[in-house]
Amino acid sequence: MNEKDTIRIGFVGLGTMGREMARNLVEAGYAVTAYDIAPAAVDALAALGARPAAGVADIGAGADVVITMLPDTPHVEEVVLGAGGLIETMRPGSIIIDMSTISPAATRAMAERLASTGIFMLDAPVSGGPIGAKTATLSIMAGGDADAFARVRPVLSAMGTTITRVGESGAGQTVKLCNQLVCGVNLQAICEALALGRACGVDLDQMRAVLLGGSASSWMLDKLGPAMIAGDAGAGFRIDLMLKDLRLTLDMAQAQSVPLPATSLVTTQYLEARAHGEGANGNQALFRVYDRMTGQRAAGASDSQP
Ligand code: NAD
User: Fold this and answer.
1) Could you identify the atom of ligand 1 that is nearest to the CA of residue 14?
2) From the record, what ranges are coiled-coil (predicted)?
3) How much helix, strand and coil, in percent to the nearest 5, is found in the chain?
4) Lowest-confidence segment of 38-42, 144-148, 299-303 by average pLDDT
5) Closest ligand 1 atom to the C-alpha of 244?
6) Are 229 and 194 in contact (CB under 8 A)?
7) Is the CB of 220 under 6 A from ligand 1?
8) Phi, psi of 71 (to 5 degrees)
9) What spacing in Å lies between the alpha carbon of 19 and ligand 1's midpoint?
10) Count of alpha carbons within 13 Å of 176, Cβ hemisphere only?
11) Cα distance between residue 72 and residue 241, in whole Å
């Protein structure tokens, strides 16, 4: 599988991340067949050169590789194992790459079932957000069969720059959930620093610039800090998706009897945000929890704040 023209790719899930990743595959020269339950998303990819599929059942038979980029575990299970799912249509030797963030245990169970039909399943979740998806600079952490991973490495290279096989099936999801733990706890630390600095009358833009130059620097502060300071809760990695990741992380930790006190605490903050109607807002809206706790808000915050 070295030549782009000999690898036929199916792509299922053309949302915030998937549409950019699929576009990068088309632009890299791969033959891509695309499907999403939202017809407009399929039309948009078709306009860029992908073949539109009418359903999941229309994807598997003609594909060497099928990539899934779906919200949560049940969506991936439906596409892979449901009626007309990939397990029924893909050929032995073909490869599913699930790039969603889902349960490591469910991933292992699916990979085992698929293996009995000769289909490989790699878990290859990503970090880097919509910007990383757009610029094909995602960090991709993969679990599963080493030979299958080597075969699809060129495909992954069209979507990301840091591409690492971290172990057997489920290991990619495990590492991704550890990544999310760091992101969530880090974001909460930034919220607390911004809330305290604001209450003390510090210039937050200047404080952010100073922190970025020292040991408190982070991706979250760099990429999300400006929106937090401006009170912009708009699009991005949704609060609802982060809550899903924190739930998966805590489930995994409980199964291993590992206490995660900081992760548990930040989960309650995200739940507070969702209870105030912030579920569809970007991750940075976690700072609005601190607006509510302190009775203060960003100068430019929109009036739509609940
Ligand atoms: P999204 O909700 O924007 O996109 C998901 C897409 O899947 C939607 O277009 C939806 O219509 C489609 N879909 C749902 N069920 C389907 C089905 N049965 N068949 C076909 N299509 C279906 O989500 P997203 O932000 O693109 O995230 C996708 C995954 O990537 C999630 O697991 C998320 O946690 C992970 N992720 C997201 C980000 C981010 O910043 N948004 C970053 C890294 C990882």
Assistant:
1) 9
2) none
3) 55, 15, 35
4) 299-303
5) 34
6) yes
7) no
8) -60, -50
9) 9
10) 34
11) 8
Kindly indicate the confidence band of residue 253, based on its pLDDT and cuts at 50, 70 and 90. Answer: very high
DSSP 8-state code for residue 91: P
Is residue 38 over pLDDT 70? yes
pLDDT, tens only, 186-198:
999 999 999 999 9
pLDDT over 80 at 93, yes or no: yes
What is the number of helices (H) and of strands (E) in the chain? 13, 9
Please state the φ and ψ torsions of residue 7, each to the nearest 5 degrees.
Answer: -105, 115
Structure token digits, residue 103 = 């349960």
Identity of the residue numbered 24? N
The CA-atom distances, in angstroms, between 124 and each of 38, 99, 106, 201, 302 are 23, 5, 14, 44, 37
The Cα–Cα gap between 276 and 264 comes to 19
Q: For the chain, how many residues are written? A: 306
pLDDT at 255: 96
Instruction: Give dist(CA 222, CA 212) in Å, integer.
Output: 7
Q: Collapse the DSSP code of 95 into the 3-class scheme (helix H, G, I; strand E, B; otherwise coil) and give the result.
A: strand
Q: Give the other-Cβ count within 10 Å of 189's Cβ.
A: 16
CB 237 near ligand 1, within 6 Å = yes
79 pocket-lining for ligand 1 (C-beta < 6 Å): yes
CA-wise closest residue to 177 among 118, 77, 105: 105
Structural domains present in the chain: 3-168 (3.40.50.720), 175-294 (1.10.1040.10)
Q: Is the pLDDT of residue 235 over 90?
A: no
CA distance 202 to 218: 20
Give residue 302's pLDDT band: very low, low, confident or very high (50, 70, 90).
low
164, 142 contact by CB (below 8 A):
yes
User: 134: which 2 tokens?
Assistant: 């757009």
Hey, what are 173's tokens?
Answer: 């999801």
